[in-house]
């Protein structure tokens, strides 16, 4: 049961062939069996899980109409507020904090009847590409437990890849859904910025953060995307437009007549040969399916990484100022003899991890008097140029494609002391965050060097989310026909 797709599980529950309680219990048993090795979950409450499942079964028994994913278990990234579970962002500064309200994404999962299994590990405050920057220890890649599962949504990606959950939520600020999906053999989607609500999402970089789905199939990702997306008046950046027809596109799965642009700037030195080999095979496959493939140049994409690492830390330095030891969370040194400023400094020194401190300091410096125009202002100008590159490209093609990440999963600890090497994991994903457009990663094979998963990134204009699902589903179907089954069947048993 744990290896069935979310769509199949929903159909079994709706027909009465399986109960939501049985499905939930099977996944709870799987978590108990393997999560000691994977460390995907930070919090699981079996009583709450089974209570949610029983509510779905009661609705079905009463003849109530169930949603497309009712009763399906889901792993929930610990960056979304949940009033019945702790929300820590994998940070000691929020250890044990229980929010008084649900995030909009959380509330919509509940309304859709999904069964939230628990909260997943992540890079602290979503800052990282490996899920090593967690106060609660690193998460391990189910394909090879010595390697990273990507980040910052690595707990979510590992949970789905390890069959602990059929679906998971993630957030994508610079690639934090797509990169984990790529290195764990999953589908990971960054919707158009503003297409999914940020209300109750604990902010890292407010102009970049985007909730999205992780799943084992393109259709499952589309169903989850549709379940929690749409306009939210509680989020001032939410787009007041209908959700694009993503489920219909995932079911269509054809590329006949589509124009596909290969981004010239993504490839060559620094890219693992096995990653490039699988990428070029996927492009050839798209061409064989009737797409027209052309090379497209986006010259300012080469400046995306430095621009991002000025904009995101600047926003983070502002957003994380609220963690002051005065209102909630950790408080250190409050013995009555110290000033509020001393307590704040001691709490932040102990509560924030090294990567969070690094980014706060970078951002504070970039925003400081005398440096704002030279750093933050210039980075925003580069952001505009990247958006113009995308606009120009989309006059020539319908979607753009690239490798999702330059390499497969690397060993835990290998880049821990080299921030620049770590940041390069998001080289291909960052431009879409800066521009706010839609982008997905779908599995496209295993690298020859290490037999680890490789991801194909598909990018489309703002609010053209359905296009990436259409192309992703076509690639998925063609590769499954070639392999005789899904990619993940090759994943080792834990």
Question: Termini separation (Å)?
Answer: 16 Å
Sheet bearing the most strands, described? 8 strands, mixed
CATH fold naming? Amidase signature (AS) enzymes
Mean pLDDT: 96
Series of H and E elements: HHEHEHEHEHEEHHEHEHHHHEHHEEH
Identify the overall geometry.
globular
CATH architecture annotation: Alpha-Beta Complex
Rg over CA atoms, rounded to whole Å, is 21 Å
How helix-rich are the residues, as a percent range?
25-40%
Number of helices: 16
- Number of β-strand runs: 11
Outline:
The chain has about 500 residues and is an alpha/beta fold. It has helices spanning about 5-15, 20-40, 45-60, 105-110, 155-160, 180-185, 220-230, 245-250, 275-290, 305-320, 340-350, 355-365, 375-395, 420-425, 430-435, 465-485; strands at about 40-45, 75, 115-120, 165-170, 185-190, 210-215, 260-265, 290-295, 400-405, 440-445, 455-460.
Give an account of the 3D structure.
This protein has 494 residues and is of the alpha/beta class. The chain has one domain: Amidase signature (AS) domain (Amidase signature (AS) enzymes). The protein contains 16 helices and eleven strands. An eight-stranded mixed sheet has the order 4-6-5-10-11-9-7-8, with helices on both faces. Strands 1-3-2 form a three-stranded mixed sheet, with helices on both faces. Strand 7 (259-263), helix 9 (273-288) and strand 8 (292-296) form a beta-alpha-beta unit. Helix 2 runs antiparallel to helix 3 and helix 7 (218-228) runs antiparallel to helix 8. The longest helix is centred in the last third of the chain and has 21 residues, at 373-393. It is globular. The protein starts with 5 loop residues before the first helix and ends in an 11-residue tail after the last helix.
């Amino acid at each position: 049961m744990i290896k069935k797709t979310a769509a199949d599980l929903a159909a079994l529950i709706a027909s009465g062939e399986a109960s939501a309680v049985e499905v939930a219990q099977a996944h709870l048993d799987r978590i108990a069996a393997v999560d000691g090795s994977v460390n995907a979950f930070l919090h699981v409450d079996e009583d709450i899980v089974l209570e949610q499942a029983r509510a779905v079964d009661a609705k079905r028994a009463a003849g109530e109409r169930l949603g497309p994913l009712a009763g399906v278990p889901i792993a929930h990234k610990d960056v979304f507020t949940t009033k019945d579970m702790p929300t820590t962002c994998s940070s000691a500064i929020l250890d044990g904090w229980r929010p008084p309200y649900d995030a909009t994404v959380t509330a919509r999962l509940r309304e859709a009847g999904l069964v939230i299994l628990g909260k997943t590990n992540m890079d602290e405050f979503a800052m990282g590409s490996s899920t090593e920057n967690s106060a609660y220890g690193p998460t391990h890649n189910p394909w090879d437990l010595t390697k990273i599962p990507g980040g910052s949504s690595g707990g979510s990606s590992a949970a789905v890849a390890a069959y602990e959950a059929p679906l998971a939520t993630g957030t994508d600020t610079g690639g934090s859904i797509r990169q984990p999906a790529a290195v764990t053999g999953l589908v990971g989607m960054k919707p158009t910025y503003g297409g999914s609500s940020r209300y109750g999402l604990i902010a890292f970089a407010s102009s970049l953060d985007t909730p999205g789905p992780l799943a084992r199939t393109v259709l499952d990702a589309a169903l989850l995307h549709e379940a929690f997306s749409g306009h939210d008046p509680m989020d001032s950046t939410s787009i007041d437009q209908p959700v694009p027809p993503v489920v219909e596109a995932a079911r269509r799965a054809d590329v006949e007549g589509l124009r596909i642009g290969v981004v010239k700037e993504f490839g060559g030195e620094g890219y693992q040969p096995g990653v490039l080999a699988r990428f070029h095979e996927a492009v050839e496959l798209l061409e064989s399916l009737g797409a027209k493939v052309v090379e497209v140049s986006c010259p300012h994409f080469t400046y995306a990484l430095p621009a991002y690492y000025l904009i995101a830390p600047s926003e983070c330095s502002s957003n994380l100022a609220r963690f002051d030891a005065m209102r909630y969370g950790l408080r250190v040194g409050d013995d009555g003899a110290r000033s509020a400023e001393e307590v704040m400094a001691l709490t932040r020194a102990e509560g924030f991890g090294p990567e969070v401190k690094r980014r706060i300091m970078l951002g504070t410096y970039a925003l400081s008097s005398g440096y704002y125009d030279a750093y933050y202002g210039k980075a925003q100008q580069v952001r505009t140029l990247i958006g113009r590159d995308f606009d120009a490209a989309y006059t020539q093609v319908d979607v753009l494609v690239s490798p999702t990440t330059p390499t497969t999963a690397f060993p835990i600890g290998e880049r821990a002391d080299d921030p620049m090497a770590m940041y390069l994991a998001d080289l291909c994903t960052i431009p879409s965050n800066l521009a706010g457009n839609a982008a997905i990663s779908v599995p496209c094979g295993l690298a020859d060097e290490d037999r680890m998963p490789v991801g194909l990134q598909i990018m489309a204009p703002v609010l053209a989310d359905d296009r990436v699902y259409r192309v992703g589903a076509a690639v998925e179907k063609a590769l499954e026909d070639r392999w005789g089954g899904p990619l993940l069947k090759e994943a080792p048993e834990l």
